[in-house]
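Bench log, entry 3. Co-assembly request; chain sequences pasted below exactly as received.
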Amino acid sequence: MDNISNIMAAIVAILKNNGLTELSLGDYAEQDDPTFIIWFDNDGTPYDDPAIKVIVENSEISVELEARDFSNNVTLQAYEIDRLEWWQGLHTGVLGILEKDGKRRCPVCGKPLRARQKYCSETCRKFAMPQPTPQEIAELANKRIQKLIARIAQGNRKLRAELIEKYIVKL
Ligand SMILES: [Zn+2]
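Structure output for the full assembly:
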């Protein structure tokens, strides 16, 4: 999963399918790979603190951090967490905690997996696939157009050049 909204949807589904509305990630000092998230206090001072709990309410995610310079925790709303790697870290953390029971989970929906399955279903596998970039889509289209031009122009080099100039997408 390579975008924040897909990862957020996966985290919501994983908690729901495991009957949870919140999941403690545990003491960050004991987490394998805690996710540190930058947050700002009311004066705009940044802090970098570890995520300790993921909460889902009405399909909205919030994340509790252990504010190490303060005596209480801080809760961030999803929109305040705007880096892909933070979401990837939270997603890995959530699955890691759930899988402590020895059962592997589908990374998209959190349902238990059978041996050697990577996703529980074709739907989840497709959801997890990276989407092609506009550049990749244009390159693929150009390849097809080039083939078409070759068939139309045959040996006519002038026509071929004209068609390429006119129809190939410039990258
Ligand atoms: Zn699934």
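Residues 106, 108-109, 111, 119-121, 124 surround zinc ion (CB under 6 Å). The two ends are 26 Å apart (CA to CA).
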